[in-house]
Queue: 4 jobs
Job 1
Amino acid sequence: MSDVLQTIDQLVKSHRVVLFMKGSARFPMCGFSGRAVQVLKACGVTDLHTVNVLEDESIRQGIKDYAQWPTIPQLYIKGEFVGGSDIMMEMYQAGELQQLLAA
């Protein structure tokens, strides 16, 4: 495993809720990242750890390799990849994201 993938693995495993996104929770820099943050806030998440992929090109590319998922944002809960913005929205609307976060 490369250094970048190890760094990502440590981030994912050391925080309960991790969102790899463009920008920050306060200042999202794309609509999908902004929507992802809003969905998590609506779920009552207070311990969100965000990683701004725009600050590090190796993380930006590495996260795509880590999850075998081509887009950003990417959500991880308890070390498990959940999905991107669209999947988060679908899960939220079905009540599944709230259950996953409450478990």
Job 2
Amino acid sequence: MKVFMLKCLGIAALMFISVLAGMQIANDGIHKMKGSNDPNFQGAIFIKEKGHNLSFSEKNPVTHDFEEKQKKLEEISSFNIFSSMGKKLSDGISNASEKLVKSITK
């Protein structure tokens, strides 16, 4: 029984260490992909210290007018044949599976 418990604890410890190592490798990969090691890399937010006050400013402040974008998209109202075909196909499959389930359960 003692050997079994030691084996279980050893495997659990190995799995825990593997998860931590995987997280570290993923973190390093994300930093490489973002290019944060690049000396010319500039962040989106800059912190300026004025006396004892800290101020946050954006490099390129962007204002989002979602209502205007929504109206513009509604005006375009482009027709996508693939989305309409996908909707019809999914409705057909849903109806067929519903009928099949009802016929089986009766």
Job 3
Amino acid sequence: MGYPDDQLARGEEVKLHTRPHWKEGVGPVLWFVVFLAIGAIAITYTTRLDWDGKIWLVLAEVVIVIALLVWLSVIPWIRWRSTHYVITDQRVMWRDGLVTRESRHIPLARVNTVSYTQNVWERIFGFGDMNIDSASDDGEINLIDVPKVDKTKALLYQLAEDDRARRSAAGDGT
């Protein structure tokens, strides 16, 4: 059982589980291809040298390429894959990080305002930044590069209204 299933309350149902827009994963993939190609070309030319110390140069090239791959490709990819935006029928959850985790949860009953921003580029590709303001001490959650941000906002408002109606019906029946 993985995230968010291991964080759900009894009867709680996930309505949306997503991560930042796929454009966040494009850069790391491009850096990976570029540095892999550059490293292969550099190592190929270095091995053709007629020089006794070329093994050290090849080793240095391998170390540099691996360091650049990890820094510009692997770490950003892992960061993207470990960021979760989850909306359930009871709350909004955000979690980020693999080694050091940060997590925020806001009950739907505490959601006051939901807003989002999109520039032209973001509208074309269907994502945006969402700000969820809460009436609790938790403050707000800022979700970056949310896919289908307008539909996500509509879903969140609908779930908040459903939660309010459920709570008021439960309050009237007792």
Job 4
Amino acid sequence: MIIGSFAILAILPAIAEESSPDMSDPTAVYTSVGAGYGTKGHNLKLGIQLPDSGEGSAHMISLESKEGGDTYRGRYFKLNTTTGFASSIDANYNRLTGVAQVSAGGLQTIPITDQFTIYPSLYLGTMIANERNDAGDKVGVDFPAITATALLYTKYQFTENVWLNVNPSFTSSVYGSKTDVFDLEASLGYQFTPVLNMRLFHNNNMSVGTYNDDTYESVTRLEFNYAL
């Protein structure tokens, strides 16, 4: 019995490593919790992997509270495990402005080398806001703009435990209020164990063509994620 117990303990790390997700992969589907803190307050996140449909796909929902509770995000994500194509529906709400944005689109996994992978994506969405009369009273729902977003996720794997993501994106309105916004997100990740990592994020966000101090935003945050 003692020998058997030691044998089980010896293989447990290998089992955990084999069953754990690749947490550096932005298309990985798994259940997780995360928390972080940055220059705009705390972030909390929850990802829930949904039951396998048996069709060569995996899907999940994720919920986030960001910037100290000023913004919220909900997302449904579905990955084709054979082709590497993923589709998603994304909803964001800013409590301070009262504006929500809902978008849908997809991305494709394209390995360039063993260490470098790109994930080009395209999304179409709409902004949703309260319609108000001249007195400032809510009188209905307004859709101020329809937007398109082109985004390129990239991942470079330095070592088994260290990776870098650089993710530029550009959003422009195709109808309604003019919106041209460029965002550059970079994150450096470190995998402590097969199910625990740390990521340092930095975002530079600016309105294109109308740059000034009011339209520029720089955010840094440190985040920990644990796969369940």
